[in-house]
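hey so i finally got around to running the thing on that chain from the lab meeting. sorry it took forever, my laptop kept dying and i had to restart like 3 times. anyway pasting the input first so we r on the same page abt which one it is
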Amino acid sequence: MQYQLRPPAEITGFFEGLELVEPGVVSCPMWRPEPHPFGDARGVDAYGGIGRKP
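ok and heres what got predicted. didnt touch it at all, straight out
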């Protein structure tokens, strides 16, 4: 499967016109930083964010 690696600044551009929810565009495990029963997800190499219409 092919995919496109993008830096966080470029991903942030996809949220233009939306209000970014804190913590913004960050490594996905930072959305739920508390310990997880299935192991440590800090090594996940993915960025994401949530935006809502203002």
